[in-house]
Fold each of these.
Amino acid sequence: MTEVRAKKALGQHFLTDLNIARKICDSLSGGTSSAPCPVLEVGCGMGVLTQFLLRRDDVVTWGAEIDSESVAYLHAHYPEFAPRLIEGDFLRMNLRERFPEGLRIIGNFPYNISSQIFFKVLENRDLVPECVGMIQKEVAVRLAEPPGSKEYGILSVLLQAWYDIEYLFTVNETVFNPPPKVKSAVIRLRRNATERLGCDEPLFVKVVKASFGQRRKMIRNSLKSVFGDFGGAEHPFFTQRAEQLSVADFVELTNWVAAHRQ
């Protein structure tokens, strides 16, 4: 098999620039050569990133690949990798079962599921200390933006509650086959020191989602449409818009909602 055909339905755009693949690989921290840590590459394609990961002696590289044609290609070209290549949908994998001691995640993520990949990282935040991913540039900007930016949104707040996020570098369309219509970017998430948010965490998620539910409206209106009118009580944040609030502000607002909802 000489090459894998890119499938639109899987959001496949194969990276062809080896220097960028090496740079992505080098952006991930590892363990030591005596105690290598597991790394799961999501969407291995034709192994352009995989080959650099396999050269590192401080990581044990695993792969998750949903495309059977790519799996066959990888088996043929990287036979030493085959026992650790899992054919299947990363979004359905039980990471806790497969990697009970934890794992790092890396990949040129398919654009159409990049947000879902990050939600899965969040669900497994006690297992995933670090994630390096190439995604659509505008999504990368959104995730890394601080409060006050119009790009700052639901996933920005939820990820920034648990991870420090760095926008590492931009990648042009020309280094992919087929080239996407948009620029890409590589970001790195590293688990921060937060163990508990200091509020009801499921309610925190609900408050964040409700606040951004009507982006152009003040928080008062966004929250009322989900939680009711709080018996007429008002919070100082009610006259602000969701993108103005930091993670700490949303924690405070969540505690207020918990105390005042009917």
Note: The chain has a mean pLDDT of 93.
Amino acid sequence: MKKAIALAALISASAFAAGASAQTMDMQNPATSTAGVTVVDVTNDPSSGNGSRLPQSVSNPSPDVIQNAQAELQSDPGLADALTMQNVELANVIAIQTAADGGKVVYIR
């Protein structure tokens, strides 16, 4: 089940990898529950067995990407609460992307 969720996150995230900015904040659709938040642990790359990989901007994030993710957490308390409910340490968040359905894909290490 976790692999299926991680794969779905990877597929939705790959659609945003080619976008101009994966760090766009979406305050019109803030995450208020864990249902709209998918967490991907980049230290256990879920895609390594099927030939696809996480985007380079996520697997090796720049300081700016990490800083933008942390800033988004500060400005979106609903997202921070959803991650806390999933036992995610907020300091481990390295990137955040908004999925097509308005949900969030959160990358941690």
Note: The chain has a mean pLDDT of 75.
Amino acid sequence: MVKCKGLNVMEQKGQALEQSLKLFIVLSRAYRAVSDQVNKSIHSFGVNPTEFAVLELLYHKGDQPLQQIGEKILLASGSITYVVDKLENKGLIVRRACERDRRVTYASITEEGRRFIERVFPEHAETIHDTVSALTAEEKEQAIALLKKLGYGAKHALTDRG
């Protein structure tokens, strides 16, 4: 029995769609599993993942305008004030006005915040390392390259459609 060429193309399209859906599910489940382990570790330090992300950003990148923190840690701008308030109340960061532009407020890590990150970050890094240890070094490099390619492709797909 000979198959029509058009049907073959439709079958291929269906298989490609199914494979894309499967990739999305596997990627989502893997992200969730890794994220759950890392977040559990972060909670053990007495902060939530968002607070930790802000502290880690300030520790590694220096003072940041409040308006830009959300973009850098993938957090809605409305939530930044709440997170910064919590960290400020814990004595881990302070707000300070920009000298050149009074409309801009910076978040700065305090000495206490610096000591906190220096104490917990090595354990955090170790948790991440242990969590992804199912992959060899070569597989991690492949995963990094493939996920970057996927991310850039998704970004451009959205741009091209919008």
Note: The chain has two domains: 5-131, 135-162.
Amino acid sequence: MSTFLIFIAGVLFLGGIIFIKPRAKRELMWKTVLNWSLFVLWYAITWTGISFVYINASVGHVKATSTAIFLFLGISVVLAVVLARLLGFIGVKKASNAVQA
């Protein structure tokens, strides 16, 4: 089972690189570095959380499992939203046909 999780982690990492690459290269150099750093940090925290939950759930540590789900899921969602905002996937749409006086 853990070999399968490692395989899925690698596939998702490469998929994320392919997905982010066109949007990350359009920005300034510092923003590109920030985007890639946030992606790697988000990915590492997400899979650390998944492995932590998997290990604790397999040995029956209910309290540690629930705490890890809360902690790692919260951090992962916050980082994902920040990364999506920086890449332009979410944000305020600009009015294209604004009447100017």
Note: The chain has three helices and no strands.
